[in-house]
Amino acid sequence: MRTLQSIGGAGMLLGSVVMSVWGGPRSLIRGVLSFAFLSQLCILALGLPTNAALFPLAFFWFFLSLLFINGYSDAILLRKVDPDIQGRVFATINMICW
Questions:
Q1: pLDDT value, residue 63
Q2: Stretches in the chain below the pLDDT threshold 70
Q3: What is the pLDDT at residue 24?
Q4: What is the pLDDT of residue 43?
Q5: What single string gives the DSSP state of each residue in 9-65?
């Protein structure tokens, strides 16, 4: 299990480096939707019949995609929500998610 978590952490690390260098697509919502689709494919792959080689790949790509989904979603909210209520909006989202 620790090995799988390490592989997922490596996916997040690589995703953060790619996000810092590339910045993502111009259309943020397309980025959210495409990486959400990738993450759902990874969850589907984890539910398939046991295959030892599939689990690490699914963990890696799932955690890599989470970084992009969160980054693009935050960027969209920062652009669309008035600065006066951004704190309340992000606090509400965090309360619902946690």
A1: 93
A2: none
A3: 78
A4: 92
A5: HHHHHHHHHHHHHH---S-HHHHHHHHHHHHHHHHHHHHSSP-TTHHHHHHHHHHHH
Domain count, the chain: 1
- 1 by DSSP, 3-state: which? coil
Residues 72-96: b if buried by 16+ CB within 10 A, e if exposed? bbeeeeeeeeeeeeeeeeeeeeeee
What count of other Cβ atoms lies within 10 Å of the Cβ of residue 43? 10
Q: Which structural domain range is residue 29 located in?
A: 2-97
How far is Cα 49 from Cα 26, in angstroms, rounded to an integer? 37
pLDDT at 4: 85
What does the pLDDT read at residue 14? 94
- The rounded distance, in Å, linking the Cα atoms of 16 and 60 is 13
Give the pair of three-digit tokens for residue 33: 């939707």
32 contact partners, CB below 8 Å, separation of at least 6 = 68, 69, 72, 73, 76
